[in-house]
Amino acid sequence: MLYEIIGIARPGNIAEVKEIVLSAGQIILRNGGVIRDIKNWGTFRLPNAISRHQVRYTKGHYFIMRYDAGIKTHQEVRETLAVDPRIIRAGGVKLGDGKLETLAKFRDIPWKRFE
Length: 115
What we know:
Strand content: 35-45%
Low-confidence stretches: none
Shape: globular
Number of helices: 3
Oligomer: single chain
Largest sheet: 4 strands, antiparallel
Number of domains: 1
């Protein structure tokens, strides 16, 4: 199945974001999955302030991963991101059923940066 995870990491350190994506990618590849796309969206203001690990955040560093994997792998990636203290918030969705007709409908999203 094709999955997509959007994560929000603590702002200010791109090396942390790279480490987070690397650890999630290793889980996917170790379990036989295929990473389709990784995007770094950059730092944006959060719609609402979020408190996580006794810190209040108003900005976050957004990233997105699209990958093919099984449900167990997807759950493992979500659980890993949920316990990582560098992650403010992460959410994942199933995008398709793995058929080419379905996958052809998903394109890049044009995002505008506001700061």
